Model the fold of this input.
Amino acid sequence: MFPDSKYLCSLKLTNRSGSWAGQLGDGRAIGLFETTNPKTRTRYELQLKGAGRTPYSRFADGKAVLRSSIREYIVSEALSALGVPTTRALSITLLPQSKVLRERLEPGAIVARFAESWLRIGTFDLLRARGDRELIRQLATYVAEDVFQGWEALPAMLPLDQSQSSDTVDNPPRHVSWDQVEGPPGSEENRFARLYREIARRNAKTVAAWQAYGFMNGVLNTDNTSIYGLSLDYGPFAFMDNFDPQYTPNHDDHLLRYCYKNQPSIIWWNLVRLGESLGELIGAGEDVDKEDFVRDGVTEEAAPAIIKRAEEIIDRTGKEFRMVFLNEYKRIMSNRLGLRSQKETDFQVLFSELLDTLEALELDFNHFFRRLSNISLSDIETKETRERTASIFFHNEGFGGIGYTEDSARQRVGDWLDKWRQRIIEDWGVDQDLERQRIMKSTNPKFLPRGWILDEVIERVERRGDREVLGRVMHMALNPFNEEWGQNHDEEERFCGDVPRFKRAMMCSCSS
Done:
């Protein structure tokens, strides 16, 4: 159980502008129980979201609207099916007679959901703001021993000087912005430093998966950053339509703080805040368990050394965060492009050039990969066939962008297809092309719950009482790589087809 449940039940923090807001959220999540899978020994916590007031609700009603509940119910399972770390949904209970006031009066709903842990970086933020160093230590110990299954499971330092390369670590993708995270290596690392490293690595892998599949959380404050590295609390989220590194699905994010390209650096910003909360513990080194330190904390005499050590550990963890992120991003992107091996040149020649092309021509990010999966090498043997094939990536109304003609747009895509074809032949030869296509289709989803689809589902459930569409879309979300789902063929093809022109890059609010 939690070490002190009165502090750890439904904590929410508001720091959307990048600064501490000093307040709690609505506290509507109700923890039911913990359980452990007897086969895998994986521990889960079950919750209800939207079931009413809790002692931590302040003035809020503790309810959730149907609209946001449907969104979380579908997308959490969709991400899981893609292999992206996420909280999970068990059920959704519609409450059409229970009215909830947000921007308007809406019907309510309750989502039953589970996760390995619902703790967030924001949980530590709150304790640091209160100056509760004893509970920070207790909570960190609980995370290591109960959530991560023991101190011995936590990682040691990565050999950065051997594992990183200048092409990946020192030159991140052009469509990702980074804060400066370089720094000298840490020393005298204790078990709390290893805990910090584990949390950072998990979040690095998760945000890499977001970037590779074009997913955006929309509100990446410390409260929405999981200690376990899970995607969670789905407010104004979205999957990318036309590739745009500046896109955010949050219509309140006027400064684009949480836009697509900023997600990795924002997650690291949040992890630095966690490092500050754990600073006393990770900076104490081998003295962390000495009786006087546990009782009295940092003395004025010891403070400079402890601060220096904590900063070194945070800096080194930042380097590891970058390396883990880039390695995971390269792995997923290589899989999406059908590559069996990785070359340093792939990063610029294939990955970055592809993203630049998608942005310049305003092409759909995820559709491109799925349609690429269907192309055989024989379809793109010559310059003429490559440029003719390029049109399958265009929207129904054609390509977008400024300064391109039909011929120049086809030529740009065709030039990239030529480079891709050469790498595929290098990896697969020409005799295994059908197998390459099969594997690519198992990595690149045909269906994703885009914003326009979710809006239609919500409208049909809320206004027309059409409950069946919710089940059909959930079935598609759970099996995103299928060619068909055997339910409603016309609806399936429409949901997997071109995003309606005026429903691309939709934005929504944080209200729920």
